[in-house]
Amino acid sequence: MLPDLERLIHLQDIETRTGAARRVVAAAPERIAALDAKLADARAGLEAAKAAAADNQAARRTADKDLLASQQRLEKYKEQSMAVKTNTEFHAMQHQMAAVKAEIDQFESRTLEIMMRADELAAALKAAEAHLKAAEGAIAAERRAIEAERAAGEDALKALAIERAALVGQISPRLVSTFEKVARARNGQAMARAEKERCVVCQVRLRPMVFQSVVRNDDIVQCDSCQRILYFVPPEPGEHASTTSAPQSPAASGHS
Ligand SMILES: [Zn+2]
Question: How many CA within 13 A on the CB side of residue 130?
């Protein structure tokens, strides 16, 4: 194979690995921000559960106070009813006592509701605490993994830059510039394998003369359509020869 062609294939490999490492490094802050958001959600959930429990306790204190006040009023009415002299006064007092008793019934059932709600809220608080604890553990582990990936990506980028500089020094500048031009235009991929008289990346058919030249791997040939630099990987011994455009049906393969 033409040494420059071999170096360009190597350069493409470096570029591809560089692109992958850059994506890992670039994605890290967003991934960490997503973890922070998850943790913030878990913390907010716990705060909400605490606030709901505190509200419930405040409601309970108010309910207890209301109930006690009504009970005291009822006691007072009972004492007063002992002292009434007329039937009319007595009936009026009975009427007031019945009203206070109804109020007490109402307050008692409200207290019961608050107590039942308190049990639910206590369970929810416990669940929110457990959820936060689990999230903190999982998120810390995920964060360490992301940081490690980012560090590995940064190390890889440094090593790849050194490898690239050394390699580029061995390729003719004109060819490097062609490679870079195509890479810029083609999403980082400047090289394309040719197979069965086609450029495997853009799938455009190559002229037979062009394909034969690519098969020899002894010249720099660009795809007419996508401009990528073409190369040919000879089939492994025993593999169906792909230097021709013969259909590769299962029946046709194997015995050639
Ligand atoms: Zn092409």
Answer: 6
How far, in Å, is the centroid of ligand 1 from the Cα of 190? 10
Residue 247's pLDDT is what? 46
Domain ranges across the chain: 3-168, 173-231
The model's pTM is: 0.72
Task: Compute the Cα dihedral for 7, 10, 16, 19 and give only its sign.
Answer: negative
**In this structure, what DSSP letter does residue 195 have?**
E
**Residue reference for tokens 């490097």:** 176
- Regions of the chain where pLDDT drops below 70: 239-256
Distance 1 CA to ligand 1 centre (A): 20
What CATH number belongs to 3-168? 1.10.287.1490
Instruction: Measure the CA–CA gap between 6 and 33, rounded to whole angstroms.
Output: 42
168 CA → ligand 1 middle, Å: 23
